Amino acid sequence: MKTPEELYLVLTGGIRRFFSDAGKTNAVLGISGGLDSAVVSCLAQDALGKEQVCGLLMPGPFSTVHSLNDAMELCMLNGIPNYIIPIDQIYHKFLRELSPVFEHDTHGVMEENLQARIRGVLLMAYANKKDCLLLNTSNKSELAMGFGTLYGDLAGALMVLADVYKTSVYDLAAFLNRDEERIPAHTISKEPSAELYIDQKDTDSLPEYDVLDPILHALIEEGKTEEELLDSGTNPELLAGITHKMRLSGFKALQVPPLLAVTDHPLLPPDKSLRYDL
User: Fold this and answer.
1) Distance of alpha carbon 30 from alpha carbon 122, whole angstroms
2) pLDDT for 219-238, tens place per residue?
3) Which of 40, 201, 235, 264 maximizes the CB count within 10 A of its CB?
């Protein structure tokens, strides 16, 4: 397993090489106030240059004030050019137009995915207009569990963290903050959330990452069977839930951007796993 410094060097080098090969110099990404987008912002700046990375802050109907503040603080700490584009009116316009079709069904996955897809449209519009590439911020834990929206937060030209487990993203954040604060302390300490409904937390859908990631690592990197994990004492209900989600979400991996491979077992096939090792 790579150290945070090794991960940093491989990821920044990979971003730099990908953009060079694509003939592009500038990147855009959505900055939510969460950890993943904060880490990708810093990696992209270090790879491409301070002024070559732009962030779109797109608060929605369930976004918290603290997340917008965290996103703004990240941009201030790192000098990231940014724009704030609220999506509330766009979201409610979609809902009004769709209401005759859905006949006032209760809030569910459609409404959550709609918010992510609106943000994806705005990001791609910026990328097209400004001739830059959209960086995806999903991590390996989320991708393995299907915790992402196709054509929404899974959009982009390159997935930077898609071969990096969430627990290692925290290690990367600590490395980026080694000399000075680049990622706000509250971004690191707060409970992860996609903020697609009131008081949403990642743990509403997933186990705690420090529980999930070792199981995913055992299944993916170590090639252990479910039987072996059960024999070693893994909770049967927990394991069944994880493997069920992995099976159901496998089709998403066929439709996501290429990723930067940092392990020998990325979740995407070889033609979509870009390896720029040191």
Assistant:
1) 9
2) 999 999 999 999 999 999 99
3) 40
